[in-house]
Amino acid sequence: GREWHLAARPQGWPVPADFALVEAPVRQPGPGEITVRNAYLSVDPYMRGRMNDVKSYVPPYALGAPMDGGAVGYVVASAAEGFAVGDAVLHGLGWREYATLDAAHAVKVDPELAPLSAYLGVLGMPGLTAYAGLLEVASFKEGDTVFVSGAAGAVGSLVGQIARLKGAKRVVGSAGSAEKVATLVEEYGFDAAFDYKAGPVAEQLAAAAPEGIDVYFDNVGGEHLEAAIGALNVHGRVTLCGAIAQYNDTSAPAGPRNLALAIGKRLRLQGMIVGDHAALRGQFAAEVGGWLRSGELRSDETVVEGVENAADAFIGMLRGANTGKMVVAV
Ligand code: NDP
């Protein structure tokens, strides 16, 4: 089967030559192991950090070795109790066609309940990030005005919709094109949205939320975070989820320059890592699954066909080529 290796560590924006598609033998499962034919691979922003040789909450990818990440697929060989050929599973050995792994590191998923790719997006890691980040980290409460950046992406599109379903007073989003802005308002039910490339974020946010905001869910950092600090009301809360505007920067960002405002406004800014919120998984799956079935919540995917296009899909996601979750159909 084919698998992606890290060929070089990017300086700034990743380029196709940083990745190499390599043919590798498919290993037969040993005791307790399964072999999975991957159906969908996840490409996620955090993988950009793993391409750098720096210590973080996930170890860096090794040069010349296979990359990993979320994947869903079907068991094609099993030497593990409780796993049969044909079972659908979610696991961590993405970026490849076939994966042989300890079955303890795979979770069975139900392809009848939702399309398999949903377990990489709305019903998976990004979905839980949105749910936990809004409800637990930002302590969202009914009547809050919520602003989310990266609002047309996997996490952001769910943050806005969960806020609406949970009784937000007003939901505002920003995204990188007029088309995405239209989707936020027309498909996801945001009250207002703007294109951050069309003008200063602070000005557009002030117009979209004239009475200020109570919660900011930050996927972007930099200018967005500075604008949100300016717009936040007293006792406002910020979930620091991501800072994608700076993942490819080679020098430290300039802002936010107005952080001292957080003192007088008694703001709470809290970082999050989704892995800390596993205890919410059951409640999340039940509630978000229910909204999906009732049609109250929309989840889009951008599907790139072919394992050979996974690197392009990843780079495309960093540039905003996706609406909703970006996945690769193997
Ligand atoms: P998305 O589906 O949102 O895809 C990334 C999007 O980022 C692109 O579509 C693009 O949309 C936007 N983007 C790229 N560059 C910029 C920029 N300079 N300024 C503003 N937007 C930009 O990805 P995810 O939903 O998977 O992730 C969203 C964020 O959440 C990321 O920051 C990620 O790192 C973080 N995250 C954090 C987790 C945690 O545990 N802390 C877990 C999961 C995700 P556009 O066209 O609008 O520019």
Automatic annotation (TrEMBL):
Keyword Transcription regulation: no
GO molecular function, one term: oxidoreductase activity, acting on the CH-CH group of donors, NAD or NADP as acceptor
Pfam family, one: ADH_zinc_N
UniProt cross-references to SUPFAM superfamilies, sorted A to Z: GroES-like, NAD(P)-binding Rossmann-fold domains
SMART domains from the UniProt entry: PKS_ER
Domain Enoyl reductase (ER) stretches: 14-328
Keyword list, A-Z: Oxidoreductase
Name this polypeptide is given: Enoyl reductase (ER) domain-containing protein
